Amino acid sequence: MTGSRPLWLSGGVDISRRRFEELVSDALDEVPVELTRLMDNVVVLVEERDEREPTLLGLYEGVALTERGHDYGGMLPDRITVYRQAILDICATEEDVV
Fold it and tell me: Is pLDDT at 67 greater than 50 in this prediction?
């Protein structure tokens, strides 16, 4: 909470969607190779905000690596959704975003 307003209503840094997507891409480029090798069949998406949980920063939806059996195949990609506005709400600068 900031004063009497929830943090997500108090505002934060303002970055265009295009620039935010560039920052997400840059951050993914920094993930160590050992981890990116494990990101098979995964897509990363940028959305504005989760409607049910407006302060949620990100969400993984899919089948965990530890749960993938021999029959895992032909599945739609797992999804990692990054919620742009929720992240911007808690950041004061562009550097905070990454």
Answer: yes
| pLDDT tens figures, 7-66 | 545 568 899 999 999 999 999 999 999 988 888 789 999 999 999 999 999 999 988 878
Across the chain, how many H-helices and E-strands are there? Answer: 4, 3
> CA angle at residue 44 from 41 to 46, to 5 degrees?
155
CB count, 10 Å around CB of 91? 14
**Which DSSP symbol is given to 23?**
H
d(CA 50, CA 84): 10
- Which ranges of the chain would DSSP assign to H, the alpha helix? 17-29, 33-36, 84-89, 94-97
